[in-house]
Amino acid sequence: MAAAVATLQPPNSTVYQQVKNLEERIKIDDLKEALTEIFSEYGTVIDLVAKRNLKAKGQAFVVFEDVEAAERAIKEVQGFELFEKPMLLDYAKTKSDATVQSEGTEEEFESHKRRRLAEK
Asked: Across the strands, what pairs with 63?
């Protein structure tokens, strides 16, 4: 049985993924393709957002259809090397746009987007 993984955030269907010191030459499309291949083994990935700016290079949000898939992915993939750098995983601090849009009403989604943009 896999050891328990310490996470800072409460469980939800969105996994925050970070690869520190990812080389600048790694293209976003290559990162997204690699992450999709890795994480799709643990459940249905409904969205994957990877950042393009240098400050957020190597960071991505992988949105699963359910929390159980996110839990399995974090347990199994924590520390896995991607482009020769270990991945650091945790649950996202907030629900993803894709999760809110699929679970809530259009009004709840618009409210979520306004809140998220106000926090930036």
From this structure: 14, 47
Per-residue pLDDT tens digits for 43-97: 999 999 987 776 777 889 999 999 999 999 999 999 999 999 999 999 988 777 7
Beta pairing class for 85-91 and 59-64: unpaired
- Residue corresponding to tokens 């259009």: 106
Residue pLDDT, tens place only, 8-52: 788 888 888 888 777 778 888 999 999 999 999 999 999 999 877
Q: Tokens 């409904």 identify what position?
A: 46
Maximum distance among all alpha carbons in the chain?
43
Side by side, which strands form the sheet with 59-64? Answer: 45-50, 59-64, 14-19, 85-91, 81-82
Backbone angles phi, psi at 73, to 5 degrees: -65, -45
Place of tokens 């809140």: 115
- Which of 25, 23, 22, 49 has the alpha carbon at shortest distance from 35? 49
pTM over 0.90: no
